[in-house]
Amino acid sequence: MNKPALFLLLLNFAVIGALPRVFFRSDGRFNLKWWLTALPFGLSPLFVAGSTAVGWEPITPDSWRTGLTLVAVALNAVSIALIFLTLGTHRIPVALWHQENDDPRHIVTHGAYGLIRHPFYAAFLLAFLSGAVLFPHAITLALFCYGFVALNTTAAQEEQRLSGSEFGVEYRRYLARTGRFLPRPGRSAPAETSRVGG
């Protein structure tokens, strides 16, 4: 396995793993739903690094390895860039996933959020996809699928909560023009940024 590509993948997951401690609000608890959502974030890099450490690699044609490595590196680079772009968009830390006290204090519709509603989750999914591309195996693919279902479920719950909040009217307009994890084709972000609440 390409060691720099593996390092970049592990660095990406390390950045993701640090977010709950260094960026997200610390007034919540890591409940069972949080741990179930977080599970693949630990298992995916552990499986890839552990397999590589013992010299076990999936069987892929030699002619594919360079291409898969380049795709994985690109996915990791975009993921890391999107994480930092999203961090730069926030002025205050946001709530952890699945917290009882994560009622919205404001909504953010500018920066990374101007095109997609969940740029953190999109970045996380890119990291999972990168792991599956760099180390194509049923386990990395299963962890990507598990991560997608967990993050998609979490995103849907957050959207429902925001739609029913005091910011519901504006948030529903925002839902209509942005995609959950990918930009909506033919839709453009509003000309001015919008921030509601405290």
From TrEMBL:
Keyword Ribonucleoprotein on entry: no
Keyword 4Fe-4S: no
Entry GO MF terms: protein C-terminal S-isoprenylcysteine carboxyl O-methyltransferase activity
Pfam families linked: ICMT
Highest taxon in the source lineage: Bacteria
Keyword field: Membrane, Methyltransferase, Transferase, Transmembrane, Transmembrane helix
Topology of this chain in the membrane: Multi-pass membrane protein
PANTHER family: PROTEIN-S ISOPRENYLCYSTEINE O-METHYLTRANSFERASE (PTHR12714), PROTEIN-S-ISOPRENYLCYSTEINE O-METHYLTRANSFERASE (PTHR12714:SF9)
Protein known as: Methyltransferase family protein
